Amino acid sequence: MTSIAISDDEIKKSFVESQAKMIEFQRQLNSVRSQIQAKDHERRAAMLTLREVSLFENVPLYKAVGRMFLKDTKENILSGLNSKIESSKDEVAKLEKNAEYFDRNLKDVESSLRELLQKRYE
């Protein structure tokens, strides 16, 4: 009878540890997903700005620097927007890999929790 009590304690300890891991992976996954949304929003805004800037010729263009606006050439603004779009795409790709990693780990922890519960009730 004491061996059953020890195994119950071990199962409870494993359950608590697995549950803590699961909560941490969920938190990290949610954080990565929100970062993906922010980067995607940034990319779409840059694409829209790029499209609008490309429509007009011989119009003075300004870029925001802190709390002020500086007049700049169209080429500089277009290259800045293109680099922003590319960097956002790269960041989204990296973040999606991180999201897949956390999602896979979350599923692993959930399956181990199910196994612990099955052991407990067998």
What features would you describe in this structure?
This protein has one domain: Orthogonal Bundle (Helix Hairpins). A two-stranded antiparallel ribbon has the order 1-2. The two termini are 15 Å apart. Strand 1 and strand 2 form a beta hairpin. The longest helix is centred in the N-terminal third of the chain and has 54 residues, at 2-55. The chain is rod-shaped, with a radius of gyration of 25 Å. The relative contact order is 0.15. Mean pLDDT is 89; it is low at 1-6. Helices cover 83% and strands 8% of the residues. The protein has helices at residues 2-55, 74-120, and strands at residues 61-65, 68-72. By secondary structure, the protein is mostly helical. The chain has two helices and two strands; from the N terminus they run αββα. InterPro entries: PFD_beta-like, Prefoldin. It holds the Pfam family Prefoldin_2. This is Prefoldin. GO terms for molecular function: protein folding chaperone; unfolded protein binding. Keywords: Chaperone, Coiled coil.
Number of domains: 1
Output the radius of gyration.
25 Å
Terminal residue distance: 15 Å
- Provide the CATH topology: Helix Hairpins
Low-confidence stretches are 1-6
**What general form does the structure show?**
rod-shaped
**Record field, number of beta strands:** 2
User: Which architecture per CATH?
Assistant: Orthogonal Bundle
Largest sheet geometry:
2 strands, antiparallel
Taken in chain order, the helices and strands follow as: HEEH
Pfam family, one: Prefoldin_2
Keywords: Chaperone, Coiled coil
GO molecular function: protein folding chaperone; unfolded protein binding
Coiled coil: 78-112
